[in-house]
Amino acid sequence: xxxxxxxxxxxxxxxxxxxxxxxxxxxxxxxxxxxxxxxxxxxxxxxxxxxxxxxxxxxxxxxxxxxxxxxxxxxxxxxxxxxxxxxxxxxxxxxxxxxxxxxxxxxxxx
Amino acid sequence: xxxxxxxxxxxxxxxxxxxxxxxxxxxxxxxxxxxxxxxxxxxxxxxxxxxxxxxxxxxxxxxxxxxxxxxxxxxxxxxxxxxxxxxxxxxxxxxxxxxxxxxxxxxxxxxxxxxxxx
Lengths: 110, 118
Description:
The complex is a heterodimer.
Chain A: E1 5-7, E2 10-14, E3 19-24, E4 31-37, E5 43-50, E6 55-58, E7 61-66, E8 71-76, E9 85-91, E10 99-100, E11 104-109
Chain B: E1 5-7, E2 10-13, E3 19-24, E4 31-37, E5 43-50, E6 65-69, E7 75-79, E8 88-95, E9 108-109, E10 113-117
């Protein structure tokens, strides 16, 4: 499969702690995106990192990309209960298609 | 609202019936995607529309599945002779056209149609 795969599948932390999720993929990419999905809702775009970028920040989010290892990580700092959701990475291996992993289910306990 | 709208939000039907799922993309978005998400799983690409170009149907799982997009706006996903394995959430997303291969446009998702086949 060319899909990105997130790791861990589930993560439970206390409010205020940092959460790190990883994504691995198999083929070369142009860029990688992270999305968030609250229960029963659609996905919301969080951040996009290009293949020539190594790190990107957006508020409490920090994304890294290592194309040599075909992996990316999403760090959420100072987590809040409202961050509880599933997080997906999406890679593009061709012009039209995006491959989504199975997601990391994050639970932030208040 | 200005987001992607999907209807119905829930659909329960008997095995063997046909169903139609509708997606209203964001105005001005020329790209439209359909995905299927089984319980606790990631998204499975089904079909992609871009403007007036021929759609990329390579993700459709069988010939019981079809989709069309009228006037470059509203899209309908049709499943004929539904089977129990078709039960899933069907998500639609739209985006601006990608002109730079190195820069994807973020996809904007609707809240999906939860389809249950009895």
